[in-house]
Amino acid sequence: LQHKLALSDKPEASVEMAQFRPFYISGEVQNPGQFPYVPDLTVLKAISVAGGIRRSADYGPQLGKDLVTAKGNFDISDDLRVRLIVKRARIDADMAGKTSFEAPKEVEGDPRLPTIVNDEMTILTADQKALKLKLESLDDLKGVLQAEIESLEKKIVNQQKQVDLAQQQLASIGPLAQKGLVANARLLDSQQSVTDLQGKILDYETAILTAKQAISKATQDAIDAQNTLSSSLAAARQQTEADLNEAALKVNMQKGLIAQATDPATTAAITNDQQPTLLYSLVRNVDGKTSEIAAKEDTPVLPGDVIKIKLAPLASQ
After folding, report:
1. Tell me, what DSSP letter sits at residue 115?
2. From CA 65, how far away is CA 287, in angstroms rounded?
């Protein structure tokens, strides 16, 4: 904050947790999906939040519904993921001052890519055009003010010549007035003329100072415009990265739901009407690396975790 706002001292700030990242649960629960995180959450508590374990009687119709829902949610999350990847590339290009950018290789070949890239290029062009017009307008203003300063400086030179002539005239009248050869009124008029001419020079000098201040302000406005764009791009880059991580988690979760809905073990459990054994695991992202760890009902759950509940293969299989 001190750097971005150009503060002389470091600002005092306090931070408190307003909201945790949600957790996700997929598999053999009544209501798989995304839920708000609360402290001291365990796998068992998360299952309760999701409506408990799915009942065997619901498996048949529920599987078909889960598959359709998971595929639909997967398409939505994957589309958002692709758009965010392209948006991140556009922001990086904008921050680097580039006028265009290449489609990221990680989404290369996606049929949606041309439309998304075109939309982001429109935003990139608009951002840079707005900044360019702002800077050009300020440059034009500074040019006008500089021309005004040069004109005033020429007026001061001419005005000073008139002052010099008036002072010469006053110097010639003074001795005559002392001898009584010239009326005092004429002497006063000459003195007033010199004073008026000198006053105009002061006015011109004041106008020059005002114009120089306006040039300084225009220069600062140009710097502020560039800094504002840079700050907004940095904030957008950070938010895009966070949104992209969330979209990736949702894509992985929906993949798990699709796989679970088409798992042969689930179908076998429905057919045999047996009570299956459940396996728990947590998919956790740490420092950008995703890993899956085995879990139990009392295993603590962290914000952003994906809880996977699967049917263990039956002994008869």
Report:
1. H
2. 35
The per-residue pLDDT for range 201-252, each reduced to its tens digit, is 899 899 999 999 999 999 999 999 999 999 999 999 999 999 989 888 888 8
Q: Which amino acid is at 312?
A: A
User: End-to-end distance of the chain based on CA atoms, in angstroms?
Assistant: 62
> If pLDDT is split at 50, 70 and 90, which confidence band does 316 have?
very low
Q: How far is CA 138 from CA 36, 38, 127, 148, in A?
A: 49, 52, 17, 15
Confidence (pLDDT) at 317: 43
Residues 6 or more apart in contact with residue 260 via CB below 8 angstroms: 26, 27, 28, 66, 266, 310
Amino acid identity, residue 21? R
Element (H, E) at 306: strand 306-311
Give how far the C-alpha of residue 314 lies from the chain's centroid of Cα atoms, to the nearest Å. 51
H-helix or E-strand containing 311? strand 306-311
Cβ count near 10 (within 10 Å): 9
* CB proximity list for 181: less than 8 A, separation 6 or greater: none
C-alpha 19: how far from chain center? 20
Amino acid sitting at position 307:
I
Identify whether the C-beta of residue 201 lies closer than 8 Å to the C-beta of residue 156: yes
Question: 292, 10 in Cβ contact below 8 A?
Answer: no
For residue 216, the Cα-to-chain-centroid distance in whole angstroms is 28
B/e letters for 94-108, b = 16+ CB within 10 Å, e = fewer, are beeeeeebebbeebe
Cα 214 to Cα 218: distance, rounded to the nearest angstrom: 6
Instruction: With both helix axes pointing from N to C terminus, report the angle between 56-95 and 113-178 in degrees, rounded to the nearest 10.
Output: 40
Q: Please state whether beta strands 33-35 and 23-27 pair in parallel, antiparallel, or not at all (unpaired).
A: antiparallel
The Cα–Cα gap between 81 and 275 comes to 38
